[in-house]
Amino acid sequence: MKIISILGSTGSIGRSALDVIKLHPDRFDIFALSGYDNEDLLFKQAIAFNPTYIVTKDEESQIKLSALLKNISNGTEVLFGPEGYKFIAGHEKVSTVLAAITGAAGLLSTMEAAQKGKTILLANKESMVMAGNLLSEICLQNNGLIIPVDSEHNAIFQVIHDQNNQSEINKLILTASGGPFRSLPLRELKNVSIKDALNHPNWEMGQKVTIDSATMMNKGLEVIEAAYLFKISHNKIEVLIHPQSIIHSLVEFIDGSTLTQLGFPDMKVPISYALSFPERIASGVKGIDLSSVSDLQFELPDLEKFRCLKLAYNCLELGGSYPIEINAANEVAVDAFLRKKINFTQIPELIEKALNAAQSSKIETIEDVLVVNEVSRIKAGQLLKGFKFA
Ligand code: MG
């Protein structure tokens, strides 16, 4: 029996994970769930899964949810805030932590799980981007394990987890759907709306990652994530646009073999693999009938149009604090776009300005990561004031 805490159970990944877990009550026990804004869903999940703890965003929400749960004699205890998230991530009873909080906000709880040697099912790619080497090292020191949930990295993990000899790998090829603007000319990109950008052709995901997919920053962050996760240099990671999202990334070996994992674009597949590793369980998703998807297309990304991807490669190559800087600037830019402060093509403009103003610093501790993240966000916020929605 795996005893599980879910960080971010009300988000898209958390909900899909609970769908899979529901199919296997004999294998998984939910110890704790946590949400942020969606109190109603967190309450419903507490009733359905009867966890020992749930964690919500603040004290006001804690008082409200405690009262509601008491009314129906549910024994679940309600905690709140960063200390609450850390508590359920590191609790001694927990074996497995699904880290599915979006953005830099997920870093501390993911780190706590690493420090306590948990098996981390990592959906919070930003913590790998910001603190990749640190997170891997701490995990290793404490006999923990990181299993990527991100579909591309999960595919690569499925291919290479038991053959860790890096020298056998020629390159990793991350596939990308190309998002909603794959075939839109660069000159029309400026005028796309929030609604257009949120309309992903293949995947159902949260807002932040959907906008990141539209700018292809998502793929940029995934290149950085892959470099740290699989300890592969930037010049051995390629991005290939594959609009059908059936092939979820590939590994090319030195003997000329290329291996991959195929599946319908449904996050329940990588989630169930991460949950059940090293075994496999039913995910509720059917296999692919290849005769019905005979047209699989591939093309190289346009780095002029998808500037964010190019910037992410640059940051990975520069190393040091640059991956933290690009992640912070991107979070500020995406938030500004969603608040209609900047237009779509100003997202990479703001990020590039922030990176040009950045200076590299050495990252040795988690405090270093937090300081750079904080300072970068403030600086990007200041640069944002110079932008006009055009
Ligand atoms: Mg992905």
List cofactors, ions and other ligands. magnesium ion
* CA radius of gyration: 20 Å
What is the 3D form? globular
Number of domains: 3
In which range does the helix fraction lie?
A: 40-55%
Strand content: 5-15%
How many E strands? Answer: 11
Major beta-sheet overview: 7 strands, parallel
Distance between the termini: 55 Å
Round the mean pLDDT to the nearest integer and report it.
95
User: Unreliable runs, pLDDT <50, ≥5 residues?
Assistant: none
Going across the biggest sheet, name each strand in turn.
4-3-2-1-5-6-7
Distinct helical segment count: 15
Q: What structural category characterises the helix and strand content?
A: alpha/beta
Q: What string gives the helices and strands in order?
A: EHEHEHEHEHEHEHEHHHEEEHHHHH
The gist of it:
The protein is α/β, with parallel strands linked by helices. It has helices spanning 12-22, 39-49, 59-71, 81-90, 107-115, 125-141, 151-160, 194-197, 207-215, 217-230, 268-276, 307-318, 322-338, 346-357, 366-384; strands at residues 2-7, 28-34, 53-56, 77-80, 96-99, 119-122, 145-148, 169-176, 237-241, 247-253, 258-262. The protein is 45% helix and 15% strand.
